[in-house]
Design goal:
There is one protein chain. The chain has about 350 residues and is α+β, with helices and mostly antiparallel strands. It has two domains: about 10-200, Heat Shock Protein 90 (2-Layer Sandwich), CATH 3.30.565.10; about 215-330, Ribosomal Protein S5, domain 2 (2-Layer Sandwich). About 30% of the residues lie in helices and about 25% in strands. It is built from nine helices and 15 strands. An eight-stranded mixed sheet has the order 5-4-3-6-2-1-7-8. A five-stranded mixed sheet has the order 9-10-13-11-12, sandwiched between helices. The protein has a two-stranded antiparallel sheet with strand order 14-15. A hairpin with a 2-residue loop joins strand 11 and strand 12 (about 255-260). Helix 6 (about 165-180) runs antiparallel to helix 7. The longest helix is centred in the middle third of the chain and has 18 residues, at about 165-180. Bound molecules: adenosine-5'-diphosphate and magnesium ion. The site of adenosine-5'-diphosphate has 24 residues, from helix 2 and helix 4.
Length: about 350
């Protein structure tokens, strides 16, 4: 009898991993923007063409990479962000799996240009379907530019499955919002087919919300702030009269990472009880800061769901704080829903 098990070649393993990490152009945008943040960039530019289907390019002025690191960054499980398993429970970076670039390079044409401050000459690498096509020295400013072209070029089924340009663009803008709102001090630009979509200078939290959602947002915001031993909460809720049928403007950030939490969303809704009609959803931009050791981020491939040690305490605190803030702004007369 012959044995039948074999190890998959790297490019096949990468393509399988890519299926989890990269669902659509917006997933690439998220990974590239987060890498730029992790590289301590203060300016980040996102350029897309055809809703990201032909080009997604992110340029940052962060720490850049050495020539060796530039090449290694495309290997699976290659990361500068963690070294040991215990680091998983004390994360201060957006990334840690070392999978994004390997996955993206397995299913697209990728050009990387990068240079560190201390290097005179940078590195340019072209990679297609996990294969390095060229690598050369190049003159570039400090920082990194990664261009991802022809996403899913080698997976026609995935490519055909992409939605219309407006829908894919919407997803990209959602990811852009999440990262830009989490990091208001970082300047961002976004261009689509050559047109500026966003130009955001370094701002504070309120300015960033207004920069994204327009001047009208300013008068809708009710500040929320409360610090306890287990969690610091800051940010804003929208006044009850701006509650909407859709859940568009609902943002939780934990340690500057956008997350989804049905449980914490319920805490906010509970604080609005009696102030908004049933079926409408309150808007909020809430920033939670907790000890990184008290959360587990490694429960979901896109890291948008996390586990808190002190979930119940955070729920209670959030609800009480928001109630208090709404009351303080005395914009919370009990509505007569029969009128
Ligand atoms: P992760 O972010 O989980 O470490 P990635 O595949 O996204 O994995 O990136 C691999 C590595 O490449 C990172 O750990 C980092 O060292 C490097 N890297 C990626 N993008 C950048 C960037 N924009 N600037 C500097 N280094 C980067
Ligand atoms: Mg990453």
């Amino acid at each position: 009898m012959t044995d039948i098990i074999q190890l998959l070649p790297d490019h096949v393993a990468n393509q399988i991993a890519a299926g989890e990490v990269v669902q659509r152009p917006a997933s690439v945008v998220k990974e590239l923007l987060e890498n730029a943040i992790d590289a301590n960039a203060s300016e980040i530019t996102l350029v897309i063409k055809d809703a990201g289907k032909t080009l997604i390019q992110v340029t940052d002025n962060g720490i850049g990479m050495s020539t060796t690191d530039a090449r290694l960054s495309f290997e699976r499980h290659a990361t500068s962000k963690i070294k040991a398993a215990e680091d998983l429970f004390n994360l201060n970076t957006k990334g840690f799996r070392g999978e994004a670039l390997a996955s993206i390079a397995a299913i697209a044409h990728v050009d990387l240009k990068t240079k560190r401050e201390q290097d005179e000459i940078g590195t340019k690498i072209e990679i297609e379907g996990s294969t390095v096509v060229s690598q050369e020295a190049t003159v570039v400013p400090t920082g990194t530019t990664i261009a991802v072209k022809n996403l899913f070029y080698n997976i026609p089924a995935r490519r055909n499955f992409l939605k219309s340009n407006p829908v894919e663009t919407r997803h990209i803008i959602d990811e852009f919002h999440r990262v830009a709102l989490a990091h208001p001090s970082v300047a961002f630009k976004m261009l689509h087919n050559g047109d500026a979509v966003f130009t955001l200078p370094s701002q504070n939290y309120r300015q960033r919300i207004v920069g994204i959602f327009g001047n009208k947002a300013n008068e809708k915001l009710v500040p929320v702030e409360e610090f306890t031993e287990i969690v610091k909460v800051s940010g804003f809720v929208l006044k009850p009269e701006f509650a909407r049928k859709s859940r568009g403007e609902q943002f939780f950030f934990v340690n500057n990472r956008f997350i989804k939490s049905g449980y914490l969303n319920h805490a906010v809704s509970a604080a609005f009880e009696g102030l908004i009609k049933e079926g409408l959803h309150p808007g909020y931009f809430l920033y939670l800061e907790v000890n990184p050791q008290s959360i587990d981020i490694n429960i979901h491939p896109t890291k948008t769901e996390i586990k808190f040690d002190d979930e119940h305490a955070i729920y209670a605190m959030l609800r009480a704080t928001i109630k208090h803030s709404l009351g303080q702004f005395s914009i919370a007369p009990v509505l007569d829903f029969n009128k």
